[in-house]
Known about the structure:
Layout: E1 2-3, H1 6-26, E2 33-39, H2 43-59, E3 62-68, H3 74-86, E4 92-95, H4 105-111, H5 123-130, H6 139-150, E5 159-163, H7 170-178, E6 187-191, H8 198-202, E7 207-210, E8 228-231, E9 235-238, E10 246-249, H9 254-258, E11 263-264, H10 274-287
Parallel strand pairs: 1-11, 2-3, 2-4, 5-6, 5-7, 7-8, 8-11
Antiparallel strand pairs: 9-10
NADP nicotinamide-adenine-dinucleotide phosphate binds at residues 140, 163-166, 168-170, 191-195, 198, 211-214, 232-235, 271-272, 275.
Amino acid sequence: MAIIDGKLISLQIQDEIALEVNAIKEKGGKVPHLAAVIVGNDGASETYVGAKVKACDKIGFKSTLVKLEENTTEQELLHIVEGLNKDADIDGYIVQLPLPKHINEQKIVEAIDPKKDVDGFHPQNVGRMALNLPAYLPATPYGIMQLLERYKIDTAGKNCVVIGRSHIVGSPMSILMARNTVPGNCTVTMCHSRTKNLKEFTLNADIVIVALGKPEFVTADMLKDGVVVIDVGITRVPSDQTKSGFKLLGDVKYDEVAAKASYITPVPGGVGPMTIASLLMNTLKASKKEIYL
Ligand code: NAP
């Protein structure tokens, strides 16, 4: 069994991007510039955005943080988005979700210029992804594809079961694994809460991608020997074994599943660290105009 080390791969990708940024600077080119908009004071969102801005600084990107009050109106946010769309210095930007309840998230996502949508949530990017056209891929699925590629995991012709069909993980993941690409070319089954006899599907899977948000839901008896397991879930559960009083659990019962798997992502340290690397890769693509000419 091999552990897929997302922390290591994420750092490798960041080093590769930093080298490229240095080369751009030496040639007097434009430094990639990412902006992040955050509305309100959600602690988790502030932590995520803070980590994204810090990663930009570390690798030499320019970053701009737009911090707005909780009571910002939808109209005011749309105005900010319009400004970012027009700002020629900003290559890409994200609006951190979730937004306060009085703001229609979909309306905001659709107002973002698809050329600057480095989160890959705009319907135009989702559609382009489905059509196998150049597109910004959403961070978590993009990160998983990088892990599969960099660990040279053979996916062609394999049975892949994706558990979960959210717009940010399960659904794009099942599209990507079915595309005629490397990695890809899987026969994909997408399962969700209405799936009957889930175990029948998972027992037939060579690759299982689990994103349902239920700690230790997938157990060894549901899987065959040699399976590749990608565990996306992260749930904070109380623990008397840690100083903080909590620990993070994935959607997979790690110890027993690891004993059966050929490859597995741990939680933490598997898929999670890849999301920042994905955002930085998308921003570099935006600055190089690789997706949209
Ligand atoms: P979500 O929007 O809540 O979606 C969960 C999906 O799981 C839904 O499609 C749901 O089906 C399905 N599901 C629920 N119970 C099920 C069951 N018993 N059997 C089969 N399918 C079931 O969650 P998400 O945003 O995709 O996130 C999933 C997990 O990944 C969470 O723990 C989240 O924290 C984590 N996550 C991690 C990262 C990372 O960077 N590592 C990024 C994003 C999310 P229905 O559609 O029928 O309701």
